[in-house]
Automatic annotation (TrEMBL):
It holds the Pfam family Ni_hydr_CYTB. This is Cytochrome b. It is found in: Cell membrane. Residues 24-164 form the Cytochrome b561 bacterial/Ni-hydrogenase domain. The chain crosses the membrane at residues 21-40, 52-71, 107-129, 141-163.
Length: 182
Protein backbone atom coordinates (compact mmCIF):
# COMPACT_ATOMS: atom_id res chain seq x y z
CA UNK A 1 0.00 0.00 0.00
CA UNK A 2 1.03 3.56 0.32
CA UNK A 3 3.47 5.62 2.25
CA UNK A 4 1.27 7.96 4.29
CA UNK A 5 2.80 6.28 7.31
CA UNK A 6 6.28 7.75 7.19
CA UNK A 7 7.17 6.86 10.76
CA UNK A 8 7.58 3.09 10.31
CA UNK A 9 10.92 2.08 11.77
CA UNK A 10 13.09 -0.53 10.09
CA UNK A 11 15.99 -0.67 7.68
CA UNK A 12 16.67 2.52 5.69
CA UNK A 13 14.47 2.56 2.63
CA UNK A 14 14.46 4.84 -0.40
CA UNK A 15 12.08 7.65 0.55
CA UNK A 16 9.25 8.34 -1.87
CA UNK A 17 9.37 11.62 -3.73
CA UNK A 18 7.76 14.41 -1.69
CA UNK A 19 5.41 15.18 -4.61
CA UNK A 20 3.98 11.67 -4.49
CA UNK A 21 3.61 11.78 -0.72
CA UNK A 22 1.87 15.13 -1.05
CA UNK A 23 -0.43 13.68 -3.70
CA UNK A 24 -1.37 10.79 -1.39
CA UNK A 25 -2.01 13.13 1.51
CA UNK A 26 -4.17 15.41 -0.68
CA UNK A 27 -6.04 12.36 -1.98
CA UNK A 28 -6.64 11.07 1.55
CA UNK A 29 -7.82 14.48 2.81
CA UNK A 30 -10.18 14.99 -0.15
CA UNK A 31 -11.58 11.46 0.07
CA UNK A 32 -12.10 11.55 3.86
CA UNK A 33 -13.66 15.04 3.84
CA UNK A 34 -15.94 14.36 0.87
CA UNK A 35 -16.97 10.99 2.31
CA UNK A 36 -17.94 12.52 5.65
CA UNK A 37 -19.91 15.33 3.95
CA UNK A 38 -21.65 12.75 1.70
CA UNK A 39 -22.54 10.68 4.71
CA UNK A 40 -24.03 13.64 6.58
CA UNK A 41 -26.01 15.07 3.64
CA UNK A 42 -27.83 12.03 2.21
CA UNK A 43 -31.20 13.65 3.09
CA UNK A 44 -33.49 15.23 0.45
CA UNK A 45 -33.07 18.75 1.98
CA UNK A 46 -29.31 18.69 1.43
CA UNK A 47 -29.28 16.75 -1.82
CA UNK A 48 -27.27 19.37 -3.78
CA UNK A 49 -24.44 19.17 -1.28
CA UNK A 50 -24.72 15.37 -1.25
CA UNK A 51 -24.37 15.24 -5.03
CA UNK A 52 -21.34 17.54 -4.97
CA UNK A 53 -19.56 15.64 -2.16
CA UNK A 54 -20.46 12.21 -3.62
CA UNK A 55 -19.11 13.07 -7.07
CA UNK A 56 -15.99 14.50 -5.38
CA UNK A 57 -15.43 11.05 -3.79
CA UNK A 58 -15.84 9.47 -7.22
CA UNK A 59 -13.44 11.95 -8.85
CA UNK A 60 -10.81 11.50 -6.08
CA UNK A 61 -10.91 7.73 -6.55
CA UNK A 62 -10.68 8.05 -10.34
CA UNK A 63 -7.58 10.27 -9.99
CA UNK A 64 -6.05 7.80 -7.48
CA UNK A 65 -6.63 4.86 -9.86
CA UNK A 66 -5.21 6.85 -12.78
CA UNK A 67 -2.10 7.67 -10.71
CA UNK A 68 -1.65 3.96 -9.88
CA UNK A 69 -2.05 3.11 -13.56
CA UNK A 70 0.54 5.69 -14.63
CA UNK A 71 2.98 4.71 -11.82
CA UNK A 72 2.34 1.00 -11.12
CA UNK A 73 5.41 0.67 -8.89
CA UNK A 74 6.52 2.83 -5.97
CA UNK A 75 4.32 4.68 -3.49
CA UNK A 76 1.41 5.25 -5.89
CA UNK A 77 0.86 1.59 -6.72
CA UNK A 78 -2.37 0.06 -5.46
CA UNK A 79 -2.30 -1.93 -2.22
CA UNK A 80 -1.38 -5.60 -2.68
CA UNK A 81 -2.87 -7.54 0.21
CA UNK A 82 -1.32 -10.91 1.04
CA UNK A 83 -3.13 -13.48 3.17
CA UNK A 84 0.14 -15.24 4.04
CA UNK A 85 1.82 -12.02 5.20
CA UNK A 86 -1.23 -11.03 7.28
CA UNK A 87 -1.51 -14.46 8.96
CA UNK A 88 2.23 -14.57 9.62
CA UNK A 89 2.19 -11.10 11.16
CA UNK A 90 -0.76 -11.96 13.44
CA UNK A 91 0.86 -15.23 14.50
CA UNK A 92 4.09 -13.38 15.41
CA UNK A 93 2.12 -10.75 17.29
CA UNK A 94 0.30 -13.44 19.27
CA UNK A 95 3.52 -15.20 20.31
CA UNK A 96 4.93 -11.84 21.48
CA UNK A 97 7.54 -11.19 18.76
CA UNK A 98 8.54 -7.55 19.50
CA UNK A 99 9.43 -6.85 15.84
CA UNK A 100 5.82 -7.54 14.82
CA UNK A 101 4.73 -4.60 16.99
CA UNK A 102 6.90 -2.05 15.21
CA UNK A 103 6.95 -3.24 11.61
CA UNK A 104 4.39 -2.11 9.05
CA UNK A 105 1.33 -4.31 9.45
CA UNK A 106 0.21 -6.26 6.35
CA UNK A 107 -3.36 -5.67 7.57
CA UNK A 108 -3.04 -2.09 6.27
CA UNK A 109 -3.01 -3.32 2.67
CA UNK A 110 -6.20 -5.35 3.26
CA UNK A 111 -7.84 -2.38 4.89
CA UNK A 112 -6.85 0.00 2.07
CA UNK A 113 -8.23 -2.41 -0.52
CA UNK A 114 -11.50 -2.79 1.41
CA UNK A 115 -11.81 1.00 1.74
CA UNK A 116 -11.17 1.69 -1.94
CA UNK A 117 -13.71 -0.98 -2.91
CA UNK A 118 -16.52 -0.13 -0.52
CA UNK A 119 -16.19 3.68 -0.66
CA UNK A 120 -15.97 3.41 -4.47
CA UNK A 121 -19.05 1.15 -4.41
CA UNK A 122 -21.00 3.71 -2.36
CA UNK A 123 -20.09 6.55 -4.74
CA UNK A 124 -20.77 4.48 -7.89
CA UNK A 125 -24.17 3.21 -6.72
CA UNK A 126 -24.98 6.81 -5.70
CA UNK A 127 -24.17 8.03 -9.21
CA UNK A 128 -26.46 5.31 -10.65
CA UNK A 129 -29.21 6.15 -8.11
CA UNK A 130 -29.03 9.76 -9.35
CA UNK A 131 -30.69 8.50 -12.57
CA UNK A 132 -32.35 5.23 -11.49
CA UNK A 133 -34.42 5.64 -8.31
CA UNK A 134 -34.74 1.85 -7.60
CA UNK A 135 -30.97 1.73 -6.96
CA UNK A 136 -31.37 4.09 -3.95
CA UNK A 137 -31.85 1.21 -1.51
CA UNK A 138 -28.73 -0.59 -2.71
CA UNK A 139 -26.85 2.71 -2.50
CA UNK A 140 -27.92 3.28 1.10
CA UNK A 141 -26.92 -0.29 2.06
CA UNK A 142 -23.47 0.04 0.43
CA UNK A 143 -23.02 3.45 2.12
CA UNK A 144 -23.76 1.79 5.51
CA UNK A 145 -21.06 -0.82 4.77
CA UNK A 146 -18.66 1.92 3.77
CA UNK A 147 -19.18 3.67 7.08
CA UNK A 148 -18.55 0.41 8.98
CA UNK A 149 -15.28 -0.15 7.06
CA UNK A 150 -14.19 3.47 7.67
CA UNK A 151 -14.77 2.98 11.42
CA UNK A 152 -12.75 -0.26 11.29
CA UNK A 153 -10.01 1.67 9.41
CA UNK A 154 -9.81 4.27 12.18
CA UNK A 155 -9.75 1.53 14.85
CA UNK A 156 -6.90 -0.27 13.02
CA UNK A 157 -4.84 2.92 12.55
CA UNK A 158 -5.16 3.85 16.23
CA UNK A 159 -4.56 0.28 17.47
CA UNK A 160 -1.36 -0.04 15.40
CA UNK A 161 -0.21 3.34 16.65
CA UNK A 162 -0.83 2.28 20.27
CA UNK A 163 1.09 -0.96 19.63
CA UNK A 164 4.11 0.96 18.31
CA UNK A 165 4.04 3.47 21.18
CA UNK A 166 3.87 0.67 23.77
CA UNK A 167 6.79 -1.14 22.07
CA UNK A 168 8.89 2.07 22.07
CA UNK A 169 8.16 2.70 25.78
CA UNK A 170 9.11 -0.87 26.59
CA UNK A 171 12.40 -0.51 24.69
CA UNK A 172 13.22 2.69 26.64
CA UNK A 173 12.45 0.96 29.96
CA UNK A 174 14.64 -2.02 29.04
CA UNK A 175 17.49 0.33 28.02
CA UNK A 176 17.26 2.19 31.32
CA UNK A 177 17.27 -1.07 33.31
CA UNK A 178 20.29 -2.38 31.36
CA UNK A 179 22.27 0.85 31.80
CA UNK A 180 21.54 1.01 35.54
CA UNK A 181 22.95 -2.50 36.09
CA UNK A 182 26.57 -1.99 37.34
C1 LIG B 1 -9.09 10.92 11.21
C2 LIG B 1 -9.38 9.99 10.34
C3 LIG B 1 -8.38 9.16 9.57
C4 LIG B 1 -7.09 8.82 9.87
C5 LIG B 1 -6.26 9.21 11.10
C6 LIG B 1 -6.60 8.00 8.78
C7 LIG B 1 -5.32 7.48 8.69
C8 LIG B 1 -4.83 6.77 7.62
C9 LIG B 1 -3.48 6.30 7.51
C10 LIG B 1 -2.38 6.49 8.57
C11 LIG B 1 -3.37 5.65 6.34
C12 LIG B 1 -2.11 5.00 5.76
C13 LIG B 1 -2.05 3.58 6.16
C14 LIG B 1 -0.79 3.00 5.57
O1 LIG B 1 0.26 3.24 6.13
O2 LIG B 1 -0.87 2.31 4.58
C15 LIG B 1 -4.65 5.71 5.67
C16 LIG B 1 -4.92 5.16 4.43
C17 LIG B 1 -6.15 5.23 3.80
N1 LIG B 1 -7.28 5.83 4.33
FE1 LIG B 1 -7.44 6.82 6.08
N2 LIG B 1 -7.61 7.83 7.86
C18 LIG B 1 -8.71 8.53 8.30
C19 LIG B 1 -9.94 8.62 7.67
C20 LIG B 1 -10.26 8.02 6.48
C21 LIG B 1 -11.55 8.08 5.83
C22 LIG B 1 -12.80 8.80 6.39
C23 LIG B 1 -11.44 7.37 4.66
C24 LIG B 1 -12.45 7.03 3.57
C25 LIG B 1 -13.51 7.60 3.33
C26 LIG B 1 -10.09 6.88 4.58
C27 LIG B 1 -9.60 6.14 3.52
C28 LIG B 1 -8.30 5.69 3.39
C29 LIG B 1 -7.80 4.97 2.22
C30 LIG B 1 -8.61 4.60 0.96
C31 LIG B 1 -6.46 4.69 2.47
C32 LIG B 1 -5.49 3.98 1.54
C33 LIG B 1 -4.91 5.05 0.65
C34 LIG B 1 -4.19 4.53 -0.57
O3 LIG B 1 -3.78 3.36 -0.63
O4 LIG B 1 -4.04 5.34 -1.49
N3 LIG B 1 -9.39 7.29 5.70
N4 LIG B 1 -5.52 6.40 6.48
C1 LIG C 1 -19.18 7.75 -0.90
C2 LIG C 1 -20.09 8.63 -1.23
C3 LIG C 1 -21.51 8.59 -0.76
C4 LIG C 1 -22.01 8.28 0.49
C5 LIG C 1 -21.24 7.87 1.75
C6 LIG C 1 -23.45 8.39 0.42
C7 LIG C 1 -24.32 8.16 1.46
C8 LIG C 1 -25.70 8.20 1.40
C9 LIG C 1 -26.60 7.90 2.47
C10 LIG C 1 -26.18 7.49 3.89
C11 LIG C 1 -27.88 8.03 2.00
C12 LIG C 1 -29.17 7.75 2.76
C13 LIG C 1 -29.68 9.00 3.44
C14 LIG C 1 -30.96 8.76 4.23
O1 LIG C 1 -31.27 7.61 4.56
O2 LIG C 1 -31.62 9.74 4.51
C15 LIG C 1 -27.78 8.42 0.60
C16 LIG C 1 -28.86 8.66 -0.23
C17 LIG C 1 -28.75 9.02 -1.55
N1 LIG C 1 -27.58 9.28 -2.24
FE1 LIG C 1 -25.69 9.04 -1.56
N2 LIG C 1 -23.79 8.77 -0.86
C18 LIG C 1 -22.64 8.90 -1.61
C19 LIG C 1 -22.53 9.27 -2.94
C20 LIG C 1 -23.60 9.62 -3.74
C21 LIG C 1 -23.50 10.10 -5.11
C22 LIG C 1 -22.21 10.29 -5.92
C23 LIG C 1 -24.76 10.32 -5.53
C24 LIG C 1 -25.14 10.87 -6.88
C25 LIG C 1 -25.75 11.98 -6.98
C26 LIG C 1 -25.68 9.94 -4.47
C27 LIG C 1 -27.06 9.96 -4.57
C28 LIG C 1 -27.92 9.59 -3.55
C29 LIG C 1 -29.35 9.51 -3.72
C30 LIG C 1 -30.14 9.75 -5.00
C31 LIG C 1 -29.88 9.16 -2.44
C32 LIG C 1 -31.33 8.97 -2.04
C33 LIG C 1 -31.82 10.32 -1.56
C34 LIG C 1 -33.20 10.29 -0.99
O3 LIG C 1 -33.68 9.24 -0.58
O4 LIG C 1 -33.77 11.37 -0.94
N3 LIG C 1 -24.93 9.54 -3.38
N4 LIG C 1 -26.44 8.51 0.27
Amino acid sequence: MTTIDVSAPGPAKRRPLPGKTLFLLAFHATLSGAFLVSWLTGDEDTYGMHQFAGYTVLAALAVRLAAAWVAPSGPLRLPRPSAGAAMGWMARLLVGDPRARVQRSPLLAWMAMALLAVVGGAALTGAVADFATPVERLHEAVADWALAVVIAHLALVFALHALKTAAARRAVRLNRTESSVP
